[in-house]
Structures are given as structure tokens and as C-alpha cells.
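REQUEST FORM: STRUCTURE PREDICTION
Request ID: SP-0412
Submitted by: Lab K.M.
Chain count: 1
Length (residues): 297
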Amino acid sequence: MSDYKNDARFQELEFLAQFERTRWVDVSFPGGGSFERDKKRQMIVSLILRGMLNGPDVEAQHYTPGKHGSPYADPGESMEQHFRTERAQLIHALMKGERGNLEMGHLGRLRFYELQDQLRATRLREAFGILFDGRHVERDVAVAILNSKPESPVSLAYLDVNGLKAFNEDGDHATGDAAIKAFFHVLEKAVSGVGDAYRKGGDEVVVIMPGTPLAEARRCMKGALMSLSKEEISVKGVRRKLSSACGIVAVTSPQAEAEAEIHRADLVQKEAKAASKSSDGSRSSALAVQDEGVELI
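STATUS: Completed
RESULT:
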């Protein structure tokens, strides 16, 4: 299991994401159970106690003035008593292993987005300080997937520098670094406002584009590759153009697995990589989109 899946913030976020797709979620914890299940129950009870699930704003719709408590009681006290009783009964039922029907209120929706902001705030930059570090990419893809819908997919791009080995061998390590830095700068600028780019390793980059249909992702990455074609690196005094192979996929299901989707983008990128090699050994940028073939740039 990836480390981020053990992060209590991600676990809470993943649980709350269900309420973005359905109004009510039933939970129960019958019998004994494992430590992991106990932690999940603790998380749910904590969300209830903090008013994020089945809180006063949710329970208010079930409150009938004069029905709960004495008809002569202060309305505020009567409502508070009703809310406390409902919350206590729900928690009591969950602790007994009975089924509980949960609904997320306004505080829960705020928490859902606050958790996403908190996780984004933990991101570090890679060694060159240009893109985000790849250690965060799978987690951030998973977070983006939680918000995905058929009408608002997450698009993922996977790409690298064509012929990086030649830059290193024909020049030196500094030449290869210069090529990578120029590549990263082009990508960082191209995807700004659309998504975020992560250095997965070496010169490999994953771009996460939330709420971005394939057509829009294609335009964005094609623009990046066209900008890259204007970049040149000096290799022992000889100017050499940069190019890249890019693969793009779209994720429409919130149940999709981040690791599998990144791998799928990698496989599409390999199609572009193969197409980028010409018979004379030269390279051009290539863009492959799932189910759409490859376009040379």
C-alpha cells in the first residue's frame, strides 16, 4: 500500500468524497474487527462529533418545534437537546455494531475542500526547484480522481525528453541537466492554470489536469510540445533542438486507482515514443491520446 493511503487526512478525504456522489451513506461495524476498522469507526465518530456528519444543519430538517421536549421549553434549548440526543443515539448505534445512516452537512463539505488544500500545502519541489516532486504524484492523482466525473474528467499526461542519453553522452552531465531544466520550464509554464507538473524521476514528468476533458488536455500539451520545439541546447558548441513524447489519458471514474491510471498514461506515452523516431535517427515531438492515435508535432 502506498504511504499516502495510511495518511489520516487522505483517509478522511476519501470517505467524505462519497457524499459528493450520493446524499446518504450507510455504515456499520458489527462483531469484533481489526485495528484498521476501529480506526475508521473512530474517524466517523469524530466527524459526527465535530458536526461534519449528521450535524445540527442536517438534523434541523428533522426537527419539529413543540414535538421535542416540553412545549413550554425554550426553543433553543429544545433544539439543542434534540441535536444532542440524535447524535448520541447515532454514536451509540455505531458502537453497538448497528447500521448508521450518515449525511454530510455544510461543515463536512468545507472539511472536504480544506483537506485537499492541506495535502496540496505539503508538496515539495524537485531538486531543480521547477516542478513538484514525484513523491507526491500518486497521492495527488488519487485526490484528483476523487473529484472526477464523466462530464468533468481528470486528464493525465506522461512525457519525457527525447534522446536525453545522447545529450549526456555527446556533451556531459551538465548538458543533460540543461536539457532537463529547459524541458521542465516549458512544461511548468504551459500547464499553469490548467494543472500541475510533477517530476516522476529523471526526465519523466506527469501532468495532472483536474476537470479537463481530453480535447482541452490535448490542446494544452500540444502547445507545450510546440513551445519545446523552439528550445535549443548547446552540445559542445552545436545547437540541438529539444523534443518530447507525450501520452494523455482521461479518468472519469472516482473509483479508479491512481497507480493504474499513471501506468495507463505511461503506456500511451510509449506509443508516442515509438512514433517520434524517424528512419534517419532524428527525433520529433509526438503526442498520443487514448483511442486517438499519434500526432507528430
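NOTES: The longest strand covers residues 154-161.
Reviewed by: T.R.
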